[in-house]
Design a protein that fits this description.
Blueprint lengths: L20 H11 L5 H22 L3 E2 L11 H4 L3 E7 L5 E2 L2 E2 L3 E10 L5 H10 L4 E2 L1 E4 L3 H4 L14 H21 L4 E6 L1 H4 L3 H10 L6 H12 L8 E6 L18 H6 L5 E5 L19 E7 L9 H11 L8 E5 L14 H19 L1
Parallel strand pairs: 1-6, 7-8, 8-9, 9-10, 10-11, 11-12
Antiparallel strand pairs: 2-5, 3-4
């Protein structure tokens, strides 16, 4: 059940934020060998302290580091998992209109539990805010979905069941470490349940030998095994989107194909769900949400700078209320503003205006 201390968080955000120009320059200099790792860390610390203060000034109660220490929302995390390798790929992930950097993930050794360096990233946020620091990590399903069987060394894992077991246990250790460090708000960034609602993505899976009808159940078991590391005090959240890179997307389709498993089989307390465009379908699947769970409606878009009006946002909340009690609902953008260091196509001022609008509307709707 969602812990009561988090239920007032009516104004939410997914987590990643546009990188300031100074930090982008520092990261470029580091990549070119013109700056040491220690010098970059100093710049990251400064930028994160500033963005924490800005979130607090905006009125947000869940605070993140904006993912300022990452270049890519998932690659950086998986590079810290034993047995996983980030490699230079032939091409990047294909979005509608462009590709990411040509990097990929593959499993080259046994996945074993161990401490993860990103825990220190969360600890830095916790040390610099008196509000609730939120941790964001990619869902374990991400390691399988994009590359499939071909990205997992068959000599290491001849059977996929063993791969899923080891991955779940490695995640369980990571989540347990967050819990022991005092983390009460953990978000799994999960894109694959929504990709399984897109026929093009399902066709890709069938072509390589995967059954898209079986994967929701497989992923649910994997995620639940990982969440066994959570403490009773921890709010277990899940962010769902259809791709987010330089304001582009990958998938389309309503949540209906996965809604039953998503809401009733996963041990998740709160769902951050994309509903900023017709690509996400209607609100009807919300009728399946149990009464003890929360949905954070991603009604505002992080992909453009156009600011949604209060009336427009409230109208969409009214539409959603036909299928779910508004007491179970919060408000956020549909995704982060910078899932990769490049960021979406809008300005920092536009980003903060959207977050301020969310805080304003949440106050007017829920008090």
């Amino acid at each position: 059940m969602l812990i009561s201390k988090l239920t007032p968080f009516r104004a939410e955000h997914v987590g990643s934020l546009l990188r300031p120009a100074r930090l982008k320059t520092a990261r470029t200099q580091r990549a070119a060998g013109e700056m040491t790792a220690e010098q970059l860390a100093v710049e990251e610390d400064l930028a994160i302290r500033e963005v924490i203060a800005r979130q607090e000034q905006t009125g947000l109660r869940d605070i993140t580091d904006g993912e300022f220490r990452r270049s890519f929302w998932h690659l950086d995390f998986f590079s810290g998992i034993a047995g996983v390798e980030v490699y230079e790929a032939a091409q990047g992930i294909q979005f509608k209109g462009g590709q990411t950097k040509a990097k990929g993930l593959k499993v080259t050794g046994k996945i074993t539990p161990g401490s993860h360096p990103m825990l220190d990233h969360w600890k830095f946020v916790a040390a610099h805010t008196n509000r609730t620091p939120k941790a964001m990590i990619p869902s374990p399903s991400v390691l399988h979905f994009r590359g499939g069987r071909k990205a997992i060394d068959a000599a290491v894992y001849p059977q996929m069941d063993e791969f899923y077991h080891d991955l779940g246990q490695a995640y369980r250790r990571v989540i347990s470490d967050y819990a022991h460090a005092g983390c009460e708000y953990l978000q799994l960034d999960e894109v694959n349940f929504t990709y399984l609602c897109d026929e093009e993505q399902c066709a890709m899976l069938r072509a390589r030998g995967d059954d898209p009808r079986a994967l929701p159940g497989i992923y649910a078991d994997l995620i639940n095994a990982a969440l066994e590391g959570a403490s009773p005090e921890m709010c277990r959240a899940m962010h769902l989107c259809r791709g987010n890179f330089r304001s582009m997307f990958i998938g389309s389709g309503g949540y209906e194909p996965v809604a039953e498993i998503l809401f009733n089989r996963l041990n998740i307390d709160a769902y951050f769900m994309e509903w900023d465009s017709e690509r996400a379908g209607g609100f009807e699947p919300l009728s399946l949400v149990p009464k003890d769970k929360r949905v954070v409606l991603g009604i505002l878009t992080s992909k453009t700078g156009a600011l949604e009006s209060k009336d427009e946002i409230k109208r969409r909340l009214d539409e959603a209320s036909r299928y779910i009690d508004l007491d179970q609902v919060s408000l956020s953008p549909q995704c982060g503003f910078a899932s990769t260091e490049e960021g979406n196509i809008l300005s920092e001022d536009q980003q903060w205006a959207k977050l301020e609008r969310i805080v304003q509307v949440a106050a007017e709707v829920w008090g």
